[in-house]
Design brief:
GO terms for molecular function: helicase activity. It comes from Leuconostoc mesenteroides subsp. mesenteroides (strain ATCC 8293 / DSM 20343 / BCRC 11652 / CCM 1803 / JCM 6124 / NCDO 523 / NBRC 100496 / NCIMB 8023 / NCTC 12954 / NRRL B-1118 / 37Y). The chain is an alpha/beta fold and 409 residues long. 38% of the residues lie in helices and 15% in strands. The chain has two domains: 4-93 and 230-393, P-loop containing nucleotide triphosphate hydrolases (Rossmann fold, 3-Layer(aba) Sandwich); 96-221, no CATH class. The protein has helices at residues 4-9, 31-35, 49-62, 100-106, 112-132, 145-155, 167-173, 195-213, 215-221, 234-243, 262-283, 308-320, 336-339, 353-358, 367-371; strands spanning 13-14, 18-20, 25-26, 29-30, 39-42, 66-71, 83-86, 91-92, 176-177, 192-193, 232-233, 250-254, 289-293, 322-328, 344-347, 377-381, 389-393. A hairpin with a 7-residue loop joins strand 16 (377-381) and strand 17 (389-393). The structure holds adenosine-5'-triphosphate and magnesium ion (MG).
């Protein structure tokens, strides 16, 4: 649990980042006031959300605060002196740290019978890789139940890594049954393949084989076998940046290689946020870590699917010392029950009354003002203050890649 007193003693003040438009002077705001009950930055595209976040991040960095950025488009690649990884390129998830549900989501396995067999198939591959210690799949047909139980027992104290590229083949091996006549031997795992069941799952198995051949998916989920390639284990880096005062305080996780696949993007963010939570829970932080999720509308869905990681970070992260800074184009993207969990708001230009009304802090008399905010201007509301202040956010000295892709000639 975070030591509040410790935070207060070392309190960081944003002194020249927010200019009070009415008072015509800088408005000093402490990092605790702005961030410790989560900050929502909202505004239409181009209103200045990412720039505002960058200004905050730069100041946190200058003051040796740990920051983790989930960058959906790679636009934060210009921040100097950071640890940056690109998922699916030089950053990977070690399957050892993933649940079978997460693997199913990442590989888009939806077939019910494949899902039912998935935990067993994973365990089989783990046995083959770490106990049997041979390449290939784990053959189950005609294997005795006792021998199998023995191998499962041995697996308990072994590494759990496995060769994910064999998953489709192993899944097929799981469809075994005893003979249905007097030859049935129930001391064996199975004697014949359940051909009917395999045939039913065939197209899903073929699809899975295709997915497992995808280069980015392989780079995302398989340990690199090439010595010369630097391949970072995301879980290891998260652990480092959440539990230690790193020399490079910021970890940028670039998700841009998967930006065109919304569902996969949601799953990635779900896994990342849940891993952050579990690391913080296990280790107990002695300093706050600010997590910035830019363009959260990409990951939040109103049907509730894929929100769980962000939800739990918002609900429980604060107690653990994980402060969330979320940016999104419209307040309507954030489910109402979550809006109430934010203590601070930076409201940049918004176009519709409906969006503004969703933010309960924007009352009728402010609607016109919010609609006419210039780029980089915002209404600021923090936990400590009742009233909203109109501020101009100072541009960071670091630039980020905001240009649209130019038309080539
Ligand atoms: N505080 C500011 N002062 C001056 N210019 C700014 C400020 N904030 C943003 N800008 C300029 O406005 C442009 C858009 O800003 P930014 O990319 O931060 O917007 P955004 O809200 O993140 O947009 P999107 O939703 O498309 O990501 C940039 O070119 C940036 O330089
Ligand atoms: Mg942006």
């Amino acid at each position: 649990m975070i030591d509040k007193q410790k935070r207060k003693d070392t309190s960081l003040i944003f002194k020249r980042q927010f200019f009070d438009v009415k008072a015509q002077e800088y408005l000093p705001i402490s990092a605790d006031e702005l961030l410790s009950q989560h900050l929502l930055i909202t505004g239409v595209t181009g209103s200045g959300k990412s720039s505002t976040a960058l200004t905050i991040i730069e100041e946190l960095k200058k003051n040796q605060q740990n920051v983790i950025v989930l960058d959906p488009t790679g636009e934060f690649r210009t921040i100097p002196n950071v640890q940056r990884i690109v998922l699916g390129d030089d950053g990977f998830f070690d399957v050892t740290h993933l649940t079978s549900d997460q693997i199913a989501h990442l590989l888009n396995i939806t077939d019910k019978s494949l899902l039912a067999n998935l935990p067993a198939a994973i365990e089989s591959l783990q046995i083959q890789n770490n106990v049997v210690a041979k390449p290939g799949i784990y053959k189950k047909i005609n294997r005795s139940q006792i021998e199998h139980d023995n191998l499962v027992e041995q697996l308990k104290i072994k590494d759990k890594y496995f060769d994910l590229s064999l998953l489709a083949n192993q899944l097929q091996e799981e469809y075994i049954t005893p003979y249905v006549d007097e030859r049935a031997d129930f001391s064996l795992l199975g004697q014949i393949y359940d051909k009917e069941a395999i045939a039913k799952a065939w197209s899903s198995l073929a699809q899975l084989k295709q997915t497992l051949k995808n280069k980015q998916i392989r780079t995302l989920l398989l340990r690199s076998t090439k010595q010369e390639i630097v391949h970072y284990d995301v879980d290891y880096l998260l652990r480092l940046f959440i539990t230690r005062r790193a020399t490079k305080q910021s970890l940028i996780i670039d998700l841009s290689l998967f930006s065109h696949e919304q569902k996969l993007n949601q799953v990635l963010v779900e896994i990342l946020t849940l891993q952050m939570m579990s690391i913080a829970k296990l280790n107990g932080l002695s300093f706050p870590v600010t997590i910035f999720i830019d363009e959260a509308h990409r990951y939040l869905s109103n049907d509730g699917h894929g929100n769980y990681g962000i939800f739990s970070l918002i609900r429980e992260g604060r107690k653990l010392g994980l402060d969330l800074m979320l940016s999104t184009q419209s307040p309507l993207d954030v489910p109402v029950e979550l809006l109430g969990q934010f203590g601070s708001f930076i409201v940049q230009r918004l176009n519709t009354r409906n969006e503004m009304k969703n933010l309960l802090i924007i009352k009728e008399d402010l609607i016109d003002q919010v609609a006419h905010l210039a780029t980089g201007e915002a209404l600021l509301k923090t936990i400590g203050r009742q009233e909203l202040k109109k501020v101009k956010v100072e541009l960071s000295t670091i630039s980020h890649q905001t240009e649209n892709i130019p038309f080539g000639l």
